[in-house]
## 1
Amino acid sequence: GVDKKILVIPGDGIGQEVTAWGQKVLATIAKNYNHTFHFDEGIMGHVAIEATGEPLPDSTLDKAKNSDAILFGAIGHAKYDNDPTLKVRPEQGLLKIRKELGLYANLRPIKLFDELLEASSIKPEILRGADILFFRELTGDVYFGEKKRTEDRNTASDLMIYHRYEVERIARKAYEAARTRRNKLCSVDKANVLEASRLWREVVQEISKDYPDVETEHMFIDNAAMQLIKDPKRFDVVLTGNLFGDILTDEASQIAGSMGMLASASVGDKVGFYEPIHGSAHDIAGKGIANPLASILSAALMLDISFGLKTESQRVIKAVEATLRQGYRTMDIANKHTENDFIMGTDAMGAKVLENLN
Ligand code: IPM
Ligand code: MN
C-alpha cells in the first residue's frame, strides 16, 4: 500500500461538519486497501483569525507544504459579509494558500448522478448525460491583480492581469484532460472587450495547434453562461480564468442538482488541495443538515489525482451512488417530485456512505 501525509483543514461553518466525513472515508479506504494515511489538522479562515489574528497562520502553511495532499472544508463568516471594511478576512487565507502552494489549476467536475435527475430545477431531459470538466485558473486574474482605492475612498479598482505562461500551463493541462474524455475543449473569455482575454484567446489558439485531435471552441462568458443552462451536454472540457470560472461553476452546480454535490481538485506545483465548491453556509452551519457528499467526493478526487489510486477512488464514487440509489438524501438534494426519499442529516448520510464502502 501507499504511505501518505494528509492535512485536514475543516475551516469554518459547515466545513467543520462535512470535512469529518471526507476524512472518515479516507480512513476507511486506508483500512480496506492496506494503505497508511497520516492525518494532521490545521486551522484557516475565521476560526484561525479568532485564534491567532491571521486567516492562514504560518503553522498551517508549513504543515500544508509538508503534506502530500490537503482536504479542506470551507471558510467564511457572516460577520465579514456584512462589513466590507474589515481588513483581515477569512478568504485571504484561502487565496494565500492557493498562491503559496502554486495551485494554478482548479478542476471542477460537473456530473449528474442519475438518481438526482429530479433534484435539479432544470428539466431532466436537458440534464441527462451532462458531464463537464471545468479547468478554472486559480492563481491569477483580477483575484490577484493590484487593488487600489483613492485617498478620498470614492474610487476603487482591481487589476485584471494574465501572463502568457499562466494561460499556457493551464491550457496544456486542460487539453491533456480533454484527450482522456470526449476530445472537446471550450475556452471561455471576454475577448471582445478585455485585453487580458485577448491574450488568453491568443495563447489558447497557439496551444490548440499541439492538440489537433481535440476540437477547440472559443466562447464569450455571457454566451457561455446561457449555453450552460440551455444545453449543458454540448460541453466537455471548459477552460477559463479565475473570475469567470468562479461564477460559471456555481451556475453549473445546478446541473449536478446541488452545490452540496460538487467536489474540486486544485493542482499545480506539487501538493494537491481538495475541497467542496460550496462555502461555509453560515445559514445552516451547526444544524447538522449540510450535505457531506461534496467532501466525500473531494476525498475521491484526492485518491485518484494525488495518489493515483483509481480503484479506491471509483469505490468511493460507487458508494455515493449506492447511497443515492437507496433513496437517502440530505435536504438540498431532496426529490422535489416524489416522496420516496429518506431525508436525513449530515452524520446519518455520511454513515450510510461508510456502510456502502464496507
Ligand atoms: C470558491 C470560493 C472562493 C473563490 C472564495 C471563498 C474566495 O468562492 O472557491 O469558489 O472565489 O475562489
Ligand atoms: Mn466560488
## 2
Amino acid sequence: MNENTAKTVSKFLSLVLRHSPEKIGLKLDENGWADVEELILKCSQKGNKLDKVLLDYVVENNDKKRFAYNEDETKIRASQGHSISVELNLAETEPSEYLYHGTVGKFMENIQKEGLKKMSRQHVHLSKDKETAIKVGSRRGVPQILTVRSGAMHRDGFKFYLSENNVWLTDEVPAKYIEFK
Ligand code: HQG
C-alpha cells in the first residue's frame, strides 16, 4: 500500500468523520458512526477513491489508530477529535497522577488565565506521556509542554475518559491544575 495514499485517505476521513460529514452528504449517527458502504460510495463519488481494502489498511495501520470499526465492520467512526457533537459513550476512567498537553507559546498567556478549553473540539485532549505531547504541540510550532495534575482534578470530581486510541479526554482543565514550567 502506498503510504501517501493512506495518509491522504486518513486526512479525508478525519475531515468527514470528525468535522464535516455533509461535505460528501454523509450522515453520522449520534455516536459518530458512519455506515461503511455509504462512506465508501460517497467518498468515491466525490473523487476520493476508496474501497474496503484501502479502508481496512488505514484503520489497521494509521499511526494514531484514529478510526475504528464496530464489531461486524459495517460501521466506522473516528475515535476522538470531533468538532461536531457526538456521544462517544466512553467509560469514565481514573487518570494517572499527571497527564500532559502539548501546545505553543502564543497560547500560553491565555491558558495561564483561563486554563485549557475545548476550543473547537468536543474535549480537551491530553497525553499520557511527554513524548506524545511534544508531537501534538509540534503540529503548531515549537512545542510547550504543560503538566496537568489530573489525579488532583479527578479527586476534585472532574471526569476523564480514555478514547479507544488512548487519548485522554476531559471537558476543561482549570489553570490551578496546570504546572507551567
Ligand atoms: C490551545 C491531534 C488559548 C491548545 C492531536 C491547542 C490531539 C488554548 C489549541 C488532537 C486554550 C486547540 C487535539 C486557551 C487550549 N487559550 N489556546 N484557553 N486552551 N488552547 O487541535 O490538543 O492528529 O483542538 O493548546 O494529536 O492541539 O488530529 O487541540 O493548541 O490528540 O488525530 O488550542 O488532535 O490528533 O487545538 O489536538 P486542537 P490539540 P489528530
## 3
Amino acid sequence: MPLPFFSCVRPLYPTPLIIDHAKDCFVFDENGNRYLDAYAGVASISVGHCRPEVVSRVKEQIDKVNHVSMLYQTRPILDYMDALQKELPDNLNRFFFVNSGSEAVDFACQSVRGFSKKPLLIAFSEGFHGGSFQAKSVTGLEAWQPVFGRDPDVVFFPSSACRSCPESGWNAKTKMISPLELHCDARCLDDLIEMMRKRREEIGGFIIEPILGVGGIITPPAGFFSRLSSECRVLRIPMVCDEVQSGFGRCGKTLFAFQRYDLHPDLVCIAKGIANGFPIGLIVGTKEISEAMSKKFHFSTFGGNPASCAAAIATLRVIEQENLQDNAENVGEWMLRRLDELFLKVPECLEIRGLGLMIGVEFSNPELAIKAVNECFHRGLLIGIGGRNRNVIRLEPPLTFTREMAEQCCRTLFESVKFALKI
Ligand code: PMP
C-alpha cells in the first residue's frame, strides 16, 4: 500500500527502509539489519549517529529550557556565535539563525538584494539551493524549480564541465578529477563574465555552491573560482556561498569549502552538518550586509533554538578535537583513488570526482545508477544519487568514516555495479 505522503515524497528504495536506531556510521532497521551509512541523512551527520557528546549536551539543555524564540537569548546561542567566529574570516561577523538550509538561502537572497539595491541574482544551472520558493527560484536544476511561477530576476549560467574541456588536461589514464590539482584559466567563464560586465548595474548578487551537491558533486577547478571571485570583487558583486552541504568539514582540511578555494563570500549559508542532524540553519555575513536589513523585520520562531545550538556547540567541539576535517581529507582522498582503481576498466563509469567526503561517481545512464543504489542497499550499504540526469552516485558519509569502512563502501559499490551490468 502506498504511504500517505504527498506524491513528491520519493523514498529511495521500492520497499521503504524503516530505521529503528543508529550508531556512528551504521543504521539498523526494525528487523535488526545493519547498514553502513555512506549518505549520513544527506550529508548531515557529521560526527557519527547518536554521538554521545552531542546527545548528552542536548539532553542537558532540554532539561533546562528547549525553546524561547528569537525575542530572547540563551547561553547556547551566545556561546555558539563565539565559537564559530573563531573559525570564520573576521569580516563575516553577523549571524542570523533559522531552521533549515532553504530558509538560510531565502534570507541570503533577500539580504544581498537589500544591500546592493539591485534585483538580479546569478546562479548556476546545475545548482540546488532548497525547497522554499526563493530557494527553488535560484535552483538551476529544472526538476527542483517551482511548480508554478518564477522569480523573473534570476539568470543561470553553466558551471564547469572539465571532462569535455581541452583545458583540463583530462586523460583516459584516470577517471578522477581533482578540483585543486587542475590548473586552468577557466575560459568556460568567458560568456558569464562578459554578461556580468554588461549588466553590472542590474546585478544584486551571485549565489554559488563551492561543490555542487545535488547537481551531481560537480567540482569546479580552483582556477574557475579564482577567476569568478576576482571578477565579482572588481565589479562589486556580492557573493553568497551556499555551504549547506559542503560545509562543516565535509570537504576536508578546513571547516568550509570556500576556505579551500580563492573564494571570499559576503554571506555564507549553513545547515545540514552544523548540528549533527538537529534542525538548524544559519547565515553569516558582513556588517554592511546585515545593516541593509535594518529597516525590515525578519523573524524565525525556532531560529537559534537552544537545543539545536547545544547540538551545534558539541558538534563543532568534536570536529575540532578529533580533527575530523583532516580525516575527511585523508579518507576522501583514499576513496577517490580506490574508486578510480576499481572503475578504471568499467566504460559505463564516466568520472570520479570529489573533495574530502563529498564524492560523486558518474555513470553513463540513470538506470544503472539506480540499480546500483538498490543493490548496495541489499548488500547493506546506504548511498545517494544526484545529477541533472540522476546518473551520479553520491558518497557523503559521516566525517568519522574509517579506512576500513571506506574499503567496504567502494568494494560494495563496485560489486553492485558489476551485478547491475551482469558482468
Ligand atoms: N542548499 C544546498 C546546497 C543543499 O544541498 C540543500 C539540501 N540538500 C539545501 C540548500 C536546502 O537545505 P534544507 O533541506 O535544510 O532546507
## 4
Amino acid sequence: LKIVTLKETEAGERRVALVPDVAARLVKLGCGLALEAGAGVASSYLDSAYKDVSIETSQRDMVASADIVLAVNPPSLSAISAMKPGAILISLFYGRNHPELVKALRDGKISCFAMEQVPRISRAQAMDVLSSQATLAGYYAVLLGTTHMQKILPMMTTAVGSLRAAQVLVMGLGVAGLQALATAHRLGAVTEGYDVRPETKEEAHSLGAKFVDTGVDATGQGGYARELTEQEKAKVRAVLTDHIARADLIVTTAAVPGRRAPRLIDAEQIAKMKQGAVIVDMAAEGGGNCEGTKAGETVQVGPAMIVGPVNLPSCLAEQASELYAKNVLNLLQQIIKDGKISLDMTDEVIAKTLLTHDGKITNDGVRQVVE
Ligand code: NAD
C-alpha cells in the first residue's frame, strides 16, 4: 500500500500532513511511503528526518502511483487529476468552497475523506482535526494578543509599586476559547469567559475564570450553538458592554455551524473600550465576531487594536502538524485492514467523513451546492 504526502502550496501554510514519528508507525504497518521533497521543512521536519520514506521531486509521478494521498489543504486540480481511480485522499477540504475540486474528485472516482467532517463523537475524538488545531490556535491567540498590548498580564510587584493584573475576556468557550482562557490564566491575568451554552459555565470555573452569565441559553443541535434571536442579542449586549469596556485583552472565537460568524462586539462597544485594549478575533476568516475586523490584518479602531489572524495553527506548525498527522493516522488505522484498504460504509465515522466515493458526492450539503 503506497501512501504519499504532498507539499502544501497555500499561501502562509507551514504545516505538513505527515511527521517522522507517524511515518515510522505507518512503515511498521507495512505501508510504502513517499514525501514530496521539502514538504516538512516549514514545520521543522527536514527530509532527512523521515526514515524509510522515499523523497520525490515529481509530484505527478508520486501521486499517480499512490493508493492514499495525504495533505492538509485541498490539493491542486492537477494533483487530483493525477490520482488513480479508487485512490484515497485525506485532507481538510471544505467542499462548499471548492466546487471544481469536488467535481474532479467525483469524476476521478477518488474517495476523499474531508477531515473537517469527522463527527464530534467520543469515539472519533482521536481523529478530530478541528479540535486538535483549535486547541493550539486558542493558546496562540492569547500570546498574539499580548504582543500588541502595552501591558503585562500578571500582577507584578516592583520597587516603585505594583502593576495590576490585566483583565482578559474570552467570548465563545468551545475548544479554542477554553484553551485561550487556560493560557491567559496561566500567564496571571484575571479571566472572564462568556458563551451562549450554559454548560460552559462550569468549564470556565474549572479554568479559574469567572463566567459572564447573560441569562441566554442558545444550545443548538449536536452540542453547537444556534443563532440568537434579535431579542436575545439585545439582552446579551446589555450585559456584555461593561465587561467589554473593562477588558485589556479580548479573544473572540464564536462560531455557529454553517452560518457567518455571529457579531459579538459592535462599533459603539469598541468606542467605550480602554485606550490600548486589544481584541484578537479568531473568527476573522468566517466574517469576524467584531465590527471592523479585517481578516489577515491588524487595525486600530478608536481606542482598540483589532487583530484578525488567519490560519493560527500554522503559526505553531511543528506541533500542529504532529497533531494533524496523528489524527490522520487514527483514521488510517480504521481503513487499513491487514495491509489492504477496507472501507466499512456502515461505520458512522467513515460514512460522515467521506466527501466523495465511487463517482458520487456523498456529503448531502456539499452535493446540493456543487451539483
Ligand atoms: P465552534 O468553533 O463551533 O464555536 C465556538 C464557540 O462559540 C462555541 O462554544 C459556541 O457555543 C460559541 N458561540 C456561538 N455563538 C455564540 C454567541 N453568539 N455568543 C457567544 N458564544 C457563541 O465550537 P467548537 O470549539 O467546535 O465546539 C463546539 C461543541 O462541540 C462544544 O460543545 C464542544 O464541547 C463540542 N465538541 C465535542 C467533541 C467530541 O465529542 N468529539 C469534540 C470537539 C468539540
